[in-house]
Amino acid sequence: MSGEDVLVCGAGITSFARTEASGRQLAVRAVRSALADAGLPWSRVRAAYGGSDAAGNADTLVAELGLTGVPFTNVRNGCATGGSALVSAVNAIRSGAADVALAVGFDKHPRGAFDPRPADWGLDEAYGRDGLMVTTQFFAMKIQRYMHDHGISPRTLALVAEKAYANGVLTPHAWRRKPLDADEILASGMVNDPLTRYMFCSPGQGAVALILCNRAVARELGGTPVTLRAAVVRTRRFGSFEVFSPWAPPGTPTSVSADAAQHAFEEAGLEPRDIDVCQLQDTESGAEVMHLAECGFCEHGEQESLIPFGATRIDGSLPVNTDGGCIANGEPIGASGLRQVHEVVQQLRGRAGERQVPHDPSAGFTHVYGAPGVSACTVLTR
Amino acid sequence: MEGPLSAVPETGGRLRGSRCADCAVATYPADPVCPRCGGPAGPVVLSGTGTLWTWTVQRYAPKSPPYVPPVAGFAPFTVGYVELPEGVRVLAVLDVGPEDAEIGMPVTLAAGDGVPRAAGVAA
Predict the structure, then answer these.
(1) Interface of A with B in 102-131 (CB under 8 A)
(2) Is the model's pTM score more than 0.90?
(3) What pLDDT score does A4 carry?
(4) What is the predicted ipTM?
């Protein structure tokens, strides 16, 4: 890593529960909250990056935030929208182009499963007509094979969701705040075998903003800054197994998550064993199980001797998705990646309230995965 | 109109894919460019039998459009990837019930009216 250090000096988040507010209104609230957290006025921001997948252009937020002339770049990069906005803000600080930068991600989706169109993905119309343009099918088929290869049980999938809802109870801004136990989750109705209804996240709404500063500004501000050691976005290599694929190559699939995580750890000069708290993409329970291994936190199959014994709970040896993840917060595509970073920042500052990880965690990791094979990872330290 | 997925009589229902001469990567549907090396790929008629690599069941009706349910209405159906000897896993609707679906089982694979369709065979 070269150039200026990058510190997160302000973090703002809205509720992820369903309300009447628009995505843009949520974004304005998140930015104001992050600025207040940092103790900086909007006029001090020298570069801004942000976006949503389905709730409008981030640069229009200047109408509410103030017409300061700040360069504001729209980012629209699917599930990596937040991560890509963050990488851009990081580069602005590292290069010296800005001493204060904003990254903001927000979204608001209609209820129900996402409904992609075959033409947008370069696929024959038959895939849509015959009912194969369904994201949940892919997640089910990936974990089905993984369970076969690595001996993961359906109950472990249920325990991942049980933990997500338990952590959601402790998280004021979460959408799903009622506990559900593993038996209820297993009995909630099969959606795509082996995944049941309560193992999935739902499209939702929410906004998150982060104020990044260089070391000099962070020192002036005081407070409890968190160092952003690495922010990385990668796309897939040949051999990966992705959503909406009419075919896949043979052999053990490559993983864009593994690639992004490895690059993030290299950039940070840290290893998975150094991490005290992490947030992993949990579109559904199986994703969290697989991403634990893909990101380097355990061997494939080892999850079966970790998750049932509480290792990934808030008081476990590696707390995962301490705010309830996507399962408890829903999936506003543009906001999820920055929600994860917000959560790690709060954990490292010791400000996570009832869901605080014990023993003063000093290093955290975040991971987003999405279609069509993109991953964004960060490493943060106190 | 014949789409790229339509059955071609002379292949006996077998799928038309492509294969790269250099790195032997096979794809379905056919792709004139190898997705691994970027070199030219030629047409190949894929095998009509393979093994089930993974599967799931579509338990709820997908959103319409684009989904067009059968005349009799939606009923849950099984989908999966079939691994062929050419070294390609093809997404197909399975004419195999959830109770009978098993990773590694032998299946036949053929072109259908729309997407490829697979069926169980005696082991």
Answers:
(1) 112-113, 115, 117-118, 124-131
(2) yes
(3) 87
(4) 0.92
